[in-house]
Amino acid sequence: MKALVNLQVIPIGTGVSVSAYIAACGAILEEAGLETELHANGTNIEGEWDRVFEAIKRCHERVHEMGAPRIQTLVSVGTRTDKEQSLKDKVESVRRRTRE
Amino acid sequence: MKALVNLQVIPIGTGVSVSAYIAACGAILEEAGLETELHANGTNIEGEWDRVFEAIKRCHERVHEMGAPRIQTLVSVGTRTDKEQSLKDKVESVRRRTRE
Amino acid sequence: MKALVNLQVIPIGTGVSVSAYIAACGAILEEAGLETELHANGTNIEGEWDRVFEAIKRCHERVHEMGAPRIQTLVSVGTRTDKEQSLKDKVESVRRRTRE
Amino acid sequence: MKALVNLQVIPIGTGVSVSAYIAACGAILEEAGLETELHANGTNIEGEWDRVFEAIKRCHERVHEMGAPRIQTLVSVGTRTDKEQSLKDKVESVRRRTRE
Known about the structure:
Four copies of one chain form a homotetramer.
Chain A: E1 2-12, H1 19-31, E2 35-39, E3 42-48, H2 49-65, E4 70-80, H3 87-99
Antiparallel strand pairs in A: 1-3, 1-4, 2-3
């Protein structure tokens, strides 16, 4: 089952800057061979469900190792059975409508 | 790693009522031996990370089998290393502050 | 337009305990005359759209005043035109299916 | 108070394709003079709190007018008092860490 995900990791009980943690998660997602797109409120991920959620778990473990005592993460995950769809397809589908 | 989760499953491309799908997911979470609390905007879940996310995956599979061609699910997941905390502890912690 | 909301406020750059901030937001929601239900991963809110979002804004302002330099808040908001539905109705609708 | 938002609008009780609704919301955000960035799991928005949430309300009203009887929307909103930050700043801040 393919999953399209937006991942927003929020470390709590650390400093006000969280970019180092986000960058570390980005590296883990890359190592997992997942397609990713960083944006201003998270990272979009495309991949098989198990591989995606295994990487998200490793991200939590890594952010704790880096010193964050608490993490709240928002995952928005979409699956569909009617057709194959990629991250790029989703954006293009809205752009096409916008041009109409 | 223990996870405290809010799960909100949103079937797309079906009828306006989604309660049958939510009830089916509830049954899957129960079978998995997870502690759950149904509320008006989702289901709170307490359990080991792997067991929780395996159950969420089965929930997606089941909702597709029931006929929903597309699902968008919102997962808010918290982990912490500073102390053990249950779903009940989180609510009680706020209630204590409210009474102060 | 009536809105049913789950509100999860996450202060960043403060200590690991966030319950004092959540309690302060709870007081603001009460003062606004909104129906609320605290749960382990947020607060469910029922009310008119404008009143709900005005209260959420005041909550952000208050949490900043209390010393949090940064806040990330998750709002899941539902509206519908096919029927009136309360927070209680949503839970009861799933419970009914579960008993079937 | 400036807000950086990710908006994910999910129409329920309609067809499996939701791109027409997302495009309509995009037009409303543009008309409101807000800076936006469409991505695969939502639209990032930068602007004054009141203007952003007024536009999100109009988006719900418009999607109902287009025929969706039910909408569930996910809003992730960030505010901060320690410094001014734009959507572009947030991405650049993580990219800088990634290059280190």
